[in-house]
């Protein structure tokens, strides 16, 4: 079970991420090596065809994976993304987006995570993107 100090440090990642806050991404759940976020999209999140912009989905996946990774490292360590790959599986049309990030492997120098973004529309949830994120462990 995650201790309160580690959880508060993961939550601080959201508190200190101005761009993520500006987008409206909110932290829903933090557990050991797992993080869940959500976003209620508005018109400002749309691209030219009215779909949710790929940059919104990528930012959500990256930041959610980062929070999962942060929960897997020591209290005096932090993580920073060094690489990510994202697949957009279908157009994102949603009343709400939900992202689930989980650690696949936590090493001393790198943490590998995956993050899935789901579009919730009319009480139905569909997977719209999947990312693999590599994060470097660094001392704070």
Summary of the model, kept short:
This protein is an alpha+beta fold.
Description of the structure:
The protein has 3 helices and 6 strands, in the order ααββαββββ. The protein has 140 residues and is α+β, with helices and mostly antiparallel strands. The chain has a 6-stranded antiparallel beta sheet. A hairpin with a 2-residue loop joins strand 1 and strand 2 (34-39).
Label this structure with key terms.
6 strands, Thiol Ester Dehydrase, Chain A, globular, alpha+beta, single chain, 45% strand, 140 residues, six-stranded antiparallel β-sheet
Name the helix and strand elements from N-terminus to C-terminus, one letter apiece: HHEEHEEEE
Tell me the name of the CATH class. Answer: Alpha Beta
Task: Indicate the mean pLDDT.
Answer: 95
Terminal CA distance: 23 Å
What share of residues are in beta strands? over 45%
| CATH architecture grouping | Roll
Which residues form runs of ≥5 with pLDDT under 50?
A: none
Radius of gyration: 15 Å
Count of discrete alpha- or pi-helical segments spanning 4 or more residues? 3
Structural domains: how many: 1
Into which percent range does the helicity of residues fall? Answer: 25-40%
Structural shape: globular
What's the story with the biggest beta sheet? 6 strands, antiparallel
Number of strands: 6
What structural class is derived from the secondary structure elements? alpha+beta
Find the CATH superfamily: Hotdog Thioesterase
* CATH topology name: Thiol Ester Dehydrase, Chain A
Read across the widest sheet, the strand sequence of neighbours is 1-2-4-5-6-3
């Amino acid at each position: 079970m995650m201790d309160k100090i580690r959880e508060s440090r993961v939550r601080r990642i959201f508190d200190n991420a101005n761009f993520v806050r500006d987008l409206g991404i909110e932290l829903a759940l933090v557990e050991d090596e797992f993080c869940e976020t959500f976003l209620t999209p508005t018109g400002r999140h749309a691209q030219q065809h009215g779909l949710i912009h790929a940059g919104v989905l990528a930012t959500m996946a990256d930041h959610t994976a980062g929070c999962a990774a942060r929960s897997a490292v020591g209290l005096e360590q932090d993580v920073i993304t060094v690489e990510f790959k994202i697949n957009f599986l279908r157009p994102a049309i949603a009343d709400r987006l939900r992202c689930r990030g989980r650690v696949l492997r936590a090493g001393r120098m790198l943490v590998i995570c995956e993050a899935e973004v789901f579009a919730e529309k009319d009480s139905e949830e569909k997977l719209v993107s999947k990312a693999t994120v590599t994060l470097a462990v660094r001392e704070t």
